[in-house]
Amino acid sequence: MVMGEEPIIGMKEVQKDGEKRSPPWLEPLLTTNFFVQCKAHIGSNKRECNMYCLDCFNGALCSLCLSQDHHNHHTIQIRRSSYHDVIRAVEIQKVFDISRVQTYVINSARVVFLNPRPQPRPPKTAAASPCCHTCFRSLLDSFNFYCSLACKIAGNSNEDHCKTNGKKGKIDASETESYSGSGQESGRNTVVESFNPSTPPPTSVSYQTGPTKRRKGIPHRSSFGGLLLEV
């Protein structure tokens, strides 16, 4: 059955470790080939696979597959525009945040592209014109960042990687500062200790025990003591 108007609980982005993670069905959806003939219902006229089950996310399904094996499951319908897969914005926004993704009006319905469209040559846009942050395709609205759901997934992955590296860099910087601070403190201690006067080495006198004897000096005699007087 096609999704109702009520939001689907548990199908949106999962937040883990402070970072938003994509729902598990999204990446398989972006890599699925739609509008192929169903091999299980070859004889049916309605065997074109343009449906996708969000509960099973096991490939493209036809309408007969939904009625037989996916009853009461959450499913979405994929449409085509110029040979590219699109989905209506009112359907996908119930299960995934499509903010900052460029929408287009096709057959009176607002849709978003599942994957980026190939570009034959590099886009030549002015510096001020809006473009996709992932594939650089020109956008219609300046407040949008991505041209498709796949580009938004890639852009969010790059942002998470930059945040992780930024946190790691901050931790490394704080550790470096702590190491340098401790080194500076040890340096200051060394300088203070180098300015303190050191204890002089003990002399030989300090090791002598008992009373010391005074050394006798050189005797002084009278200069006339050795002369003989003649009478």
Automatic annotation (TrEMBL):
Residues 161-231 are annotated as: Disordered. Residues 161-173 have a biased composition (Basic and acidic residues). Pfam families: PLATZ. PANTHER family: PLATZ TRANSCRIPTION FACTOR FAMILY PROTEIN. It comes from the Eukaryota. Residues 176-197 have a biased composition (Polar residues). This is PLATZ transcription factor family protein.
